[in-house]
Amino acid sequence: MTKNKGEARKFDPTFKGPIHNRGCTDVFCCILFILAILGYFAVGILAWSQGDPRKVIYPTDSRGQFCGQAGTPLEKKPLLFYFNILKCASPLTLLEFQCPTTQLCVESCPTKHMTLLKAYLNKGEQEYYKQFYTFAVAKYVSAPEILRDGLCPSMLMSSKPFTRRCLPALSTMKGGVVVVGNETIFDNGEGEKVNATDFLDASKKSNVVVEARQVAMRIFEDYTVSWYWILIGLVIAMVVSLIFIILLRYLAGIMIWVMIVMVILVIGYGIFHCAMEYRSLKGEPGSDVTIRDLGLQTDFSVYLQIRQTWLAFMIILSIVEVVVILLLIFLRKRVLIAIALIKEASRAVGHVMSSLFYPLLTFALLALVIAYWAITAVFLSTSNEQVYKVFNTTECDYSRNTCNPETFNTTNITAQCPDAECLFAFYGGETYYHKYLILFQFYNVFLFFWCANFVTALGQVTLAGAFASYYWAFKKPDDIPANPICSSLGRALRYHTGSLAFGSLILSLVQVIRVLLEYLDQKLKAAQNRFAKFLLSCLKCCFWCLEKFIKFLNRNAYIMVAIYGKSFCTSARDAFFLLMRNIIRVAVLDKVTDFLLFLGKLLIVGIVGICSFFFFSGRIKAVEQTAPSLNYYWVPILTVVVGSYLIAHGFFSVYAMCVDTLFLCFCK
Fold first, then answer.
1. Beta-bridge partners for 81
2. Can you give the pLDDT at residue 424?
């Protein structure tokens, strides 16, 4: 034994498992964590009092009022109308996400082309035009006066609602000619002719922010019509996982080999299916288009119509299949030992059956943490005030200055810049709250990581304490405590909240640094400094490795905390030296066991994923009419697959924690 690996603990025949007479550990971190939680609640209350999620849902007019919001004067005006859509082609749209033109909430979009001057010659058209006035214009005598004060648009054109905004009803005729309502040239009401192509460019710019919202809305629609089927799929995943765990309890050896064979067969079927799809598309029009040529499409089903997609899937699955088979061949002897360890873990789980239901508590607590973080983030991001700025088309000294729409017409700005308008620009603010808003957002993210890691750590300590009670029980099950899970949970919360907070704090700091590095990477993507990119990539890699190491060390430190009741640093040191003395066993046996359990997760995900694919894609004729009509059928499939993995991971994490605890107890 080398000195740098610590001293081995001497055998103690009187030791009977987790020590009951223990004291509180890492009290300072416990107090710090409690204060941080109280501060988190304060930030949430502050955000909820200042925020307004309606800003995410409803479009706003030039005065910052919400279009179509229930209980307001604009309740029956859900659509946003642009006075001059051509101004949306300005680069300012991309910089401030706001068109430099008056915007008005309307009941319906205009359905025909006309100018204000022509409308004044026809009383019927004049009445139609009035619904697009900003104010009552009874005191105005002539159309030029109305246009001078910017009270209504100089021209209307046929439009259609898109993401609650009135955009020109553009279409393309043969030869690529862009038309709006069968017209190519328009009178803009100011004596100028405008080409329909100009409206196309303006529509693209005005829609630059809401294009992503279109995809999001389609995905939301898919969830609204398929949510109950998704729940059924997740329930099936839970039942399959539970059955698998129960069978593993009584038939561990057989189930492991069945699991290995089934994983190989499921991946093999995936390769076969991809090959059949690749072959069936041969000779089909457009199937030879490459993914690069196709570019980014909002309709993702288009990618399934080209051969290259299925070829990529087939290659990826083939690589996974080969890697799995090679690992099983070269590690076959270790696999047999790992199966024996899983058998012992199965016996432990059998004596502590309540451990199988503990992940439900972890899921509930994590869901609570995620929900609180998400709601607080939304309220923080929508807690800004309405900021108005001066917009103009000609040169003006006051351009983009902050202004007040109520007093704007009485200032000297309109005299110096006749075409200037005071329009709603964005949401911001200059109060102390708004100045430090970015710090509140950062605090929200940091506390999210800290709380999520604390919940995970609590689950690990609780399970470790319960399974350690099983391992050190001389006569099983007589010497095992009556409620090992409850006893272990009580000890963890009463004595070791500080240690859990300490370990999760260290991990959270590393995770936040990784988030900041990802943020910097996004900001520097356009930069041409190769050294900066190389340095950033190295830092990202180093902190990724550091996070993995800390997670591994924390996990084993929590096991030592559960058994001996010492502080986090002492437990982490003991666990580290213990693992160093048994590095070969740790590197091979423990990781092989993790690999076998991962194959179990993969099998459950594969079974549920394949069934959901055939159901949602309408491939099963018997239930073709039952399957919901979807924009993207991959949305519920991906949700079911991810949810199935999380459910399977929850159940198998009990086994993984049991194996790690028994392994560490054996090493001691």
1. 104
2. 63
Contact criterion met (CB below 8 Å) for 557 and 550: no
For residues 505 and 528, give the distance between their C-alpha atoms in angstroms, rounded to a whole number. 36
Number of other CB atoms surrounding residue 607 within 10 Å: 17
Q: Are 465 and 491 in contact (CB under 8 A)?
A: yes
Provide the pLDDT confidence category of residue 456 given band limits of 50, 70 and 90.
very high
Cis before 144? omega within 30: no
Q: How far apart are the first and last CA of the chain?
A: 14
Q: CB–CB of 194/204 below 8 Å?
A: no
Query: Do residues 532 and 521 touch, judged by C-beta distance below 8 A?
Result: no
Tokens of 557: 């430190």
Helix (H, G, I), strand (E, B) or coil at 134: coil
The pTM assigned to this predicted structure is 0.69
Q: Parallel, antiparallel, or unpaired for β 178-180 and 170-172?
A: antiparallel
Residue type, 317: L
Q: For residue 495, which of 24, 28, 33 has the smallest C-alpha distance?
A: 24
Strand partners, 187: 193
How many beta carbons lie within 10 A of that of residue 546, not counting itself? Answer: 14
Q: How many residues does the chain have?
A: 668
Q: Across all residues in the chain, what is the average pLDDT?
A: 77
